[in-house]
Amino acid sequence: MFDPSKIQHVYIACGYTDLRRGIDGLVSIVQNRFQLDPFANALFLFCGRRSDRFKALYWDADGFLLLYKRLERGRYQWPRNQEEVLSLSPQQFRWLLEGLSIHQPKAHQPVNNIVYS
Q1: Which residues lie below 8 Å from residue 100, measured CB to CB, with a gap of 6+?
Q2: What span, in angstroms and rounded, lies between the C-alpha atoms of 46 and 22?
Q3: Fewer CB atoms inside 10 A, N or C side of the chain?
Q4: 44 in a domain, yes or no?
Q5: Is 21 helix (H, G, I), strand (E, B) or coil?
Q6: Residue 70 domain-assigned?
Q7: Cβ 9 vs Cβ 42: under 8 Å
Q8: pTM of the full predicted structure?
């Protein structure tokens, strides 16, 4: 059974994806273009040119699950400037689904490698 709370990673395919692709085509993108394991405990997100719909691919122990969402109004703030995959934090994933950019300029950014002297 699909349990979104147990997903370890969320990856977003930046740029445009042909949403006519089915499961096999999206698995091919994950493996060949991004060099990632489509069988990992990860959700892979793909968006077409219209930005009002996306597909999500997830391996669910015995088969792939293909999710499709279309907005009735509005568009997703999908990163279009790169042809790569980005790993999203849970907060960035929520922002994306709420129609916000995954890069919020006013949000507190995580701090790493602090050196106190």
Answers
A1: 77
A2: 11
A3: C
A4: yes
A5: coil
A6: yes
A7: yes
A8: 0.82
